[in-house]
Task: inverse folding
């Protein structure tokens, strides 16, 4: 989120041990790679990564994959179908983002100790509103402090 894309690329390339964890960290590394390509506006590469992740999940469907992650992948596929128009996708699938922002739905709420290093719902909202991740994050923190928002950011 700080624009250090080449550093992220190098770090993600050095994840051989984590890749053995097919249903956990590996999937989230793939998610970060997709977000990185989208940040770089490489939508063709991102679309390829999204499809690759979908196939990976399909091949590993016998393993338990968290519903939040499945909803994120579904949302990314919807984003690709919408021509990577974040605002339209955000409006069209507001029910998904409500689930992803939920603090009470155990299947869809973000967990601080999860491998989801960048909160997808915050990231997507920032893209849709043309703000930075930090701006949306701080808005949510402010809303929490004022008693209007979720318990964790």
Result:
């Amino acid at each position: 989120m700080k624009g250090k894309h080449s550093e992220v690329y190098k770090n993600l390339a050095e994840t051989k041990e984590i890749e053995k964890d097919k249903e956990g960290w590996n999937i989230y590394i793939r998610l970060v790679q997709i977000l990185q390509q989208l940040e770089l506006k490489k939508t063709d590469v991102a679309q390829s990564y999204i499809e690759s992740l979908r196939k990976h999940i399909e091949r590993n469907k016998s393993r338990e994959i968290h519903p939040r992650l499945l909803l994120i992948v579904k949302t990314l596929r919807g984003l690709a179908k919408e021509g990577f128009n974040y605002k339209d996708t955000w409006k069209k699938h507001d029910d998904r983002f409500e689930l992803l922002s939920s603090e009470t739905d155990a299947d869809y709420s973000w967990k601080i100790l999860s491998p989801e290093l960048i909160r997808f719902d915050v990231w997507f909202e920032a893209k849709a509103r043309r703000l930075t991740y930090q701006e949306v994050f701080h808005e949510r923190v402010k809303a929490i402090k004022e008693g209007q928002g979720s318990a964790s950011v």
